[in-house]
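Onboarding guide, step 5: your first structure request.
Type a short instruction followed by the sequence, for example:

Predict the 3D structure of this protein.
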Amino acid sequence: MGHDHNHTNEGHHSSSAGKLRTVSIVNLLGFVLELIGGLLFGSITLLSDAFHMFFDATAYILAYTSAHFAENFEADRTWNFGLHRLETFSAFLNGTLLIPMAGYILWESYHRFLNPSSIGTIPTLAIGGAGLLINVVSALFLHGERMSLNEKGAFYHLMGDAAGSIAVIISVTTIHFTGLQVVDPIAAVAVATLIFWSAVRVIRGSTSILLQKSPIDSDALKKDIESLPNVYEVRDLRVWRLCSEITIGSAHVCDSSTALEESSETRRAVRELMRRRGIDHATIEMEEKVEGSCHHEVAH
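The system replies with structure tokens like these:
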């Protein structure tokens, strides 16, 4: 059997943890600011956005913690891949935490719709603008060509928070010029909808990893491997992800090579093809073709 490892992601993991730590601190400060403003000036939209930021901040802290342990916990004979799966679990937990938060905002919006109250326009606008600035800067800080699952989850949270801050600004401005207090709970419902959308995306991405869904088209990969010289057949091809940064694959390759050197070259070609398809850790078992059928090759 042949094994191939790609450790080029270690630097990215370190960068990811540092970014998540910074975003966590900034958003905790934003939560405190919006919570105080929502309580003092009576905006349910601002309060809902504050709770959104709070849950997001706790999500970032959880994401940072899992990334930190994944980086610093070395793999051994008991923990084959260290604690990298923590990233996926924390992302799933973050997504599930968003759903009850959306439900709470909808419940509060319903009560505010029945019992509207006045809102302090200028201070609420100032706090909403500050929240928007925090979210946009944090999102730009996180965004990159290659983001981990936790970073993607945090990015979606931030986009939802930014939309929530925009909803605060629009609702308060509309109420100020029209006097329609009902705009506040309506805007809060819009924020809750965005939160739910974020939750679905994060849960779907993390669940696909936890349930070991193939991240690539395995049938297409099988055909490409079988098109290589001296490859007679590919069986038991499996591709799954340990976390968003580590993809694992295994395959039984039936080899029609007539010499050991040719067989070794076939294995290298299969391994390189799998690497180009994003598979970081490949286990390839070669089987020798004998009289039109394959059997496990012991000599290679």
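Each response can be followed by summary notes, for example: Residues 218-296 form a domain with the Alpha-Beta Plaits fold (CATH 3.30.70.1350).
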